[in-house]
Structure formats: structure tokens, C-alpha cells
């Protein structure tokens, strides 16, 4: 399959700490790839390099064949890369609908003067943005909560709203940073179903960080493992689960994984 995202020998250093160490990884187009590893392994730092929050010391990041190195976060988003965060970062005083509308701002073209004068073009664009935002809320199952202030939504639905807001920029690659963190089992199942639908129905490539191994094993086609910033394994979920180095690093050599239901969280 064609690599939509190619991470080539990326290294990120903070002072004397190497947070990401010479990582290579290709993310195939229309695939679901998980990145796992213990806290402090460099997973979120790698995401931050991909989205322009950090600039790596060495290496290359190619998205759809073009380099992302040196671009601002908004420029990377405009290229077609969107993300969610480990900690919810919704606009707390805005409604669900308003949050998704904010996510579309890079795709809107009306000028300041058009907005002030309420030109026909600006009003048409505004109506289209609202329609699209409502479609995205319906896609994630929040159509009935469009006018609810985001902080009044249950935790699991706030997570879904973050995904809907990220979709507002019309990405072809979506980075999900622990999308199931803090969710109960039913909320987790709902999120896993959504991840599959994002790929299968919208054609979006998914790259996610996750600690819940049930989620990883259920949704992933490829799993990469970081330990102290270094990629120590990559393969199918079954290959990674049976990898001796992964077992030794996280589970202890005496642990034998029987099935995903018995797999402890990493």
C-alpha cells in the first residue's frame, strides 16, 4: 500500500534527553496504525513533531510526498493532517456545533470585509459550514447535542466531539492521542466503532496512540512500539504481542498472553 505518511530517522532531543530516537515508520494510506509504549516513551513527542509543535533535530517527515519539516501547525493542518489530544481541549463555553465550526476555519475563504458586510458569498459559506458541522455531529452520534455547551456533555461524548472538530478541517490523516483514555467499556466500544467508520466510510488514514490493548488489538492493522524513544517493534497486532522484546520490556518474560481479553493495559 502507498505510504501517506513517511517518518524517516526522526530524532527529537530536549536538553540531554533524547525523546525520539532515530524513528522510522511508514503509515499506509487508508490504514489504521497504533503507536504503543509506556509513559515517557516518546509517543506524544512524535505526534508533536508530525504536527509542527516540535521540530526534530534530524530526520524527515513526508506527508503525501511533501516534507512537513519547518511548517507551522496551521500549515500542516491545511495540508490535510488533523489531531486530537490526550487531554480534552474543547472550547468549554462554546456549544458542540460551535466547536465543530471552529474546526473548519482553515477551509473557509470569506474575507474580514465579507464577514462585516454580510455579503451573499459569506452567508452562503456560513450556511454550508453549518450544514457540514451538523453532518459531522451526526456522524459521531451527537446530532441531538448540537446546541449543548461542550462542558455539559458527558466525558465520552466530549471525546467524540473532539473527533468531530478535528474532522472539520477535512483531513486525510487523523492522529488520535489516546482516544479511549478514561472511557468506560461502552464508551470505548463506541470509540472503536467510530475509528473503523472513519477509515471505512470516510477514507481517512488513522494513526493513534493508545494504552488500552483491547483497543489496539481490535482496531489496528499495524502496531509500532516505542521504548525510551526508540522503535523496538513493528508488525501486525499478533506479531507485536508475541515479540519477545515487547514482552520483556512491558510484561515480563514470565507472562504469556493468551488472548486480547486477558491482555493488560500498557
Q: What do you see in this structure?
A:
This protein has 266 residues and is α/β, with parallel strands linked by helices. The protein folds into 2 domains: 1-80 and 171-266, P-loop containing nucleotide triphosphate hydrolases (Rossmann fold); 91-170, no CATH class. Helix content is 37%, strand content 23%. The protein has 10 helices and 10 strands. It has helices at 43-50, 73-79, 96-102, 112-117, 120-139, 155-167, 185-202, 213-219, 237-241, 244-251; strands at 3-14, 17-28, 32-36, 58-63, 66-67, 81-83, 173-177, 205-209, 222-227, 230-235. The protein has a 6-stranded mixed beta sheet, sandwiched between helices. A 4-stranded antiparallel beta sheet has the order 2-1-4-5, with helices on one face. A hairpin with a 2-residue loop joins strand 4 and strand 5 (66-67). 37% of the residues are buried. The model is unreliable at 254-266 (pLDDT under 50).
Draw up the topology in text.
Layout: E1 3-14, E2 17-28, E3 32-36, H1 43-50, E4 58-63, E5 66-67, H2 73-79, E6 81-83, H3 96-102, H4 112-117, H5 120-139, H6 155-167, E7 173-177, H7 185-202, E8 205-209, H8 213-219, E9 222-227, E10 230-235, H9 237-241, H10 244-251
Parallel strand pairs: 3-8, 3-9, 6-7, 7-8
Antiparallel strand pairs: 1-2, 1-4, 4-5, 9-10
Amino acid at each position: 500500500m502507498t505510504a501517506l505518511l513517511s517518518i524517516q530517522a526522526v530524532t527529537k532531543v530536549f536538553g540531554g534527553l533524547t525523546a525520539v530516537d532515530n524513528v522510522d515508520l511508514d503509515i499506509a494510506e487508508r490504514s489504521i496504525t497504533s503507536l504503543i509504549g509506556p509513559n515517557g516513551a516518546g509517543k506524544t513527542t512524535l505526534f508533536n513533531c508530525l504536527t509542527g509543535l516540535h521540530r526534530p533535530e534530524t530526520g524527515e517527515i513526508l506527508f503525501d510526498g511533501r516534507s512537513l519539516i519547518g511548517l507551522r501547525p496551521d500549515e500542516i493542518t491545511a495540508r490535510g493532517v488533523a489531531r486530537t489530544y490526550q487531554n480534552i481541549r474543547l472550547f468549554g463555553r462554546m456549544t458542540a456545533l460551535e466547536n465543530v465550526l471552529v474546526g473548519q476555519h482553515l477551509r473557509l475563504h470569506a474575507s474580514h470585509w465579507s464577514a462585516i458586510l454580510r455579503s451573499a458569498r459569506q452567508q452562503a459559506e456560513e450556511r454550508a459550514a453549518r450544514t457540514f458541522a451538523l453532518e459531522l455531529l451526526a456522524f459521531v452520534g451527537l446530532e441531538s447535542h448540537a446546541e449543548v455547551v461542550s462542558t455539559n456533555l458527558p466525558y465520552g461524548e466530549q471525546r467524540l466531539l473532539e473527533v468531530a472538530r478535528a474532522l472539520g478541517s477535512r483531513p486525510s490523516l487523523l492522529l488520535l492521542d489516546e482516544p479511549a483514555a478514561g472511557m468506560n467499556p461502552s464508551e470505548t466500544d463506541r470509540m472503536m466503532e467510530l475509528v473503523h467508520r472513519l477509515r471505512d466510510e470516510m477514507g481517512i488514514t488513522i494513526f493513534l496512540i493508545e494504552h488500552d490493548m483491547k483497543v489496539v488489538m481490535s482496531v489496528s492493522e499495524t502496531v509500532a512500539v516505542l521504548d525510551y524513544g526508540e522503535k523496538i517493534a513493528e508488525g501486525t497486532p499478533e506479531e507485536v504481542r508475541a515479540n519477545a522484546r515487547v514482552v520483556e520490556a512491558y510484561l515480563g518474560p514470565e507472562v504469556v498472553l493468551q488472548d486480547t481479553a486477558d491482555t493488560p493495559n500498557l
